[in-house]
Input
Amino acid sequence: MNVSTEQPGLMRKFNAGHVVAIGWVLCAAALAERVPRFTSGHRYLLCHASSTLDHLTLTALALVAAAAVAALVGAIMMQSKESHRPALPFVWLVVVVALLVAADGVDAHGEALATQLSATPFTEGACDYAPQDYVATPGWFFW
Output
């Protein structure tokens, strides 16, 4: 008995290279939106530096990096004959998008915290020598 292993339609045309390309384009766009030079987000001048905002920024960047790695890992797994299922490319792209949504959520939380911290009155003598300038990224999923 001869069983065909060909995948129908779109599934057959969607390969590992597509997963990496789409994933990395999304990650590059997410990274570019986090560079203040390329975007015009809200600017917050904070009287005192906030290590929490620094941690949130690093967490968001780590999530974007994890999305890029997930795209690559998904493509590598697709190359394996044992693990190739028709929906596998789309599963990995959902993982990439979920990590990017999480990064936007972390950024949205950072902006809410910056809004709260910037509500403190700015007094010249009471603030740090160099106030922290925090630029919130606009994000795709949380406005």
Observations:
- The beta strands are 43-46, 132-135.
- Residues 1-5 have pLDDT under 50 and may be disordered.
- The longest strand covers residues 43-46.
